[in-house]
Specification:
CATH superfamily of the largest domain: Hypothetical protein, domain 2
Number of helices: 11
Helix content: 55-70%
Shape: elongated
CATH class of the largest domain: Mainly Alpha
Number of strands: 0
Length: about 220
């Protein structure tokens, strides 16, 4: 995909989902960004945001979370699903923050991916929302689906899809693009049935030009 089309897609999404670019509404510290991003895997925003107040009232710091009782933590985060694994990741990450990073969330990719439960996708989100750093594009299920439908890539491996997206968009857009594509994937370009008739970027989209999404003649 050429850079002009990439820019046009970005601008339309930017106009359509302005609230997606206001993370301060949700995050107030790097620690919160890390915890909520780990909890967000395989669940809905509503489930995660519902826990925001209670979880940070109970575990306000990495030190408090590192000392949490595992069973109590599991019950606390049960509504987000996969709570056994998420509890292990939260405990392990918090303990490493306390033991090796002075209780602070590190601001580099290399350090972040050392934390349990943090891969490149999560690290990209933390770096952007906690530190304003555009180190890459977080390819979650929404970004992967949209990238293939729109025509950014024909690949399925998240690392290679990320490279295709990064080649099409300048660095200063990378973090914002993640949020905008996720917002569009949730609102319109859904997994089961994309609402192509309501899509603001349909004129740029490869999927829209197929018979499945083309309007009836």
């Amino acid at each position: 995909m050429d850079s002009v089309t990439c820019s046009a897609i970005f601008e339309v999404l930017h106009e359509t989902y302005p609230r997606a670019l206001d993370p301060e509404e949700f995050f107030s510290s790097p620690f919160q960004v890390l915890v909520l991003t780990i909890l967000s895997a395989q669940t809905t925003d509503a489930q995660v945001w519902a826990l925001k107040g209670p979880i940070f009232a109970r575990y306000p710091t990495p030190e408090a979370l590192a000392a949490a009782d595992p069973e109590e933590l599991e019950e606390f985060i049960r509504p987000t699903g996969y709570f056994h694994a998420k509890a292990r990741h939260l405990l392990g990450a918090s303990r490493l923050l306390v033991d090796e990073f002075g209780g602070e969330v590190p601001a580099t990719m290399d350090d972040l991916i050392r934390l349990p439960g943090v891969g490149r996708k999560t690290a990209n989100i933390v770096l952007y929302h906690a530190f304003g750093r555009n180190e890459g594009i977080a390819v979650d299920t929404h970004v992967l689906r949209l990238s293939r439908r729109i025509g950014y890539t024909d690949l399925s491996d998240p690392a290679r899809v990320e490279k295709d997206l990064m080649a099409c968009h300048p660095r200063e857009r990378w973090g914002a693009l993640t949020d905008l594509m996720i917002a569009h994937g949730r609102a319109v370009c859904t997994a089961r049935r994309p609402r192509c008739e309501d899509c603001p970027i349909s004129r740029f989209c490869r999927h829209f030009s197929t018979e499945r999404c083309a309007p009836p003649s």
